[in-house]
What does this fold into?
Amino acid sequence: MKTTIIKIIIFRLIFLSMPVSGQTFIPFTNNPVVDTLNTLNSSEYWTRWKTDPCVIHWNNDSLRMYYGTNNYGVKTQIGTAVSPDGNNWIEKRDAPVVSLGPTGSWDDTDVETPFVVYVPSNPDSTKYMLWYSGATKDTNLLDTICGVGFQNEIYQMGMAYSNDGLNWTKYNNTTNDSLPLYAESDPVISIPYVSGCQPSVIGYESFAIAEPCVIYDSIVQKYKMWYIGVGCSNPTCSGPNDYRHRILYSESTNGINWITGIPVLDIGGISDFDSKVVYAPDVVKIGNEYWMFYSGENTGFPVMGAFTLWHQRIGIAKSNDGIFFVKGTLNPIIPNGTFGSWNEFGSNFSSAIVYHDTLRVYYSGVNDTIFGFLPKIGYSFMDSVLSNITSHVDNNYELAVYPNPTTGKIFIDSKGIIISIEIYNALGKKIFATTNLKKQLSNEINLFNSPKGIYLVRIYDGEKIYTEKIMVQ
It folds into this structure.
């Protein structure tokens, strides 16, 4: 049979000359894709409600979702589901993948808002890294009972790592094991405080650090995080009216030790959809730009994500460096739904992913009354295929995977940098992996001992994962 060469042109998108919010996002017809769970099985009560999605690429062109889940709002933990197409999801219902800490620990009340990054260059045990919000009661974390009007729960940032994306180990600093709060795990970003509830500083991290989004930049070998900080706007700090939610930015070389965060996104003007609060950032790099999807609220008083009136919506902001963001002129880009819809009272906690050349934004939807709170997960997709709106093609990212079909040997050529190559069989089992690559040269892979069939080649360049199917004859 004639040998063919498949060339994968990786489009590097540059939107610097485009309007900040020039795209329309269309709700998926069959939303929600992950619904509340009606079950009489008590072992599944922990995962009745779903919220705060994080969606990543998985084996064989499938997707995996991590989300916060709880029993009618009580004790949020982190669950997961997998999908072959991003529309139909199979939930893992036997147990959370990240659970609450023991009673008296810093994350014994809630473990939520997961964000997962796959770093192929890491050791096997830490190839998957997960950051999350962990909470405990203020009476547990602080030395005395806080006055009425202060936070009932104190949030800090935790991290866990895994070799398979399913079995996670929380980060633990053993030097703190004698302290009940940190005996089994430790936060990687903590709030500063002194005894008696009064924060040690008046600023953005006085009462809560939560809702992480992380990108690993392999070029500079740094983790970049966007998250929210909650603090008081004045030294008297008289209660909820003084709380300030802002989106902050930080960096780390190992995902554990982070520099002090700086504010990068503030609330909007009085008539804007985000005039009261901005929160839940999700950042993706599209070409040379950082696109931030974030949630906003313009009614009620914000108290760590709980609002007197539900009217949450999703906006977009863009940046050339991940720090100086410009908000979209057409915000919000994802509104709340119509009367009686699954997200009638709010759309929030977005997770954007490029899938089949289309940008999808998964998010939580709220359909609730005072007496019935029903969080679910759906998505909207951008109305343009990414390869159709590109203004520039960077030929330095041309890849060639050949021959296809093959009798057992393939070559992967690249003009750009390849961090890792993995190959999976039709059952999703990894049969080959390497990070010992010839940069910008041909990489030869031997599959002579592999059975005939279809295989998935997964190529990682430090920012994105590209896949190609090959046939072994």
About this structure: The two ends are 10 Å apart (CA to CA). The chain has one helix and 28 strands. The chain has two domains: 25-388, 393-472.
